[in-house]
Design brief:
Strand content: 5-15%
Strand order of the largest sheet: 1-2
Shape: elongated
Structural class: mainly alpha
Largest sheet: 2 strands, antiparallel
Helix content: over 70%
Radius of gyration: 30 Å
Length: about 150
């Protein structure tokens, strides 16, 4: 700190508390911005409100993302082809729809909560590695089958 700053009791900019905000002062005729003290409780409350609003805003986005990813992954998948096959064979599309929907709900439940419980025991990095290895292995098997025909 310079000698002049010590004499007049000024603090360097990095030492100013976080709850000090800049705003236009009514005393300033030039409209320049000067520091205005804001009570820390007000800033804390405002931060909590912003955090809650971000949480509520992110929830629909997470649901929409999960729905669209799973929908696109399952659309035209072998599961849907089998459902169409069962429906054509049995001539009971409502029963096939209900059974297929219940099966997808059960599998999704196991995936969502099983993954959460697995993450408590195994590191996420290892889970991702194992999932990637499994997918690469499946891709290799399918490629081998396609080439052998």
């Amino acid at each position: 700190m310079a000698d002049g700053d010590r004499r007049y009791g000024r603090r360097p900019a990095h030492a100013v508390p976080m709850h000090v905000r800049t705003s236009s002062s009514p005393c300033s005729s030039s409209g320049s911005r000067v520091p205005a003290l804001v009570p820390e409780e007000k800033v804390t409350a405002q931060g909590e409100i912003e955090a809650r609003s971000e949480h509520f805003a992110s929830r629909p986005r997470e649901i929409a993302t999960a729905f669209s990813v799973i929908f696109l992954a399952e659309f035209g998948d072998l599961t849907q082809i089998q459902a169409a096959n069962f429906s054509a064979k049995t001539h009971q599309p409502l029963e096939v729809f209900v059974a297929g929907s219940l099966a997808m709900i059960c599998v999704s439940f196991i995936g969502a909560y099983g993954g959460r419980m697995l993450q408590r025991v195994v590191a996420l990095r290892k889970i991702r590695f194992a999932g990637g290895a499994r997918l690469r292995g499946a891709r290799g098997l399918h490629a081998g089958e396609a080439l052998s025909r």
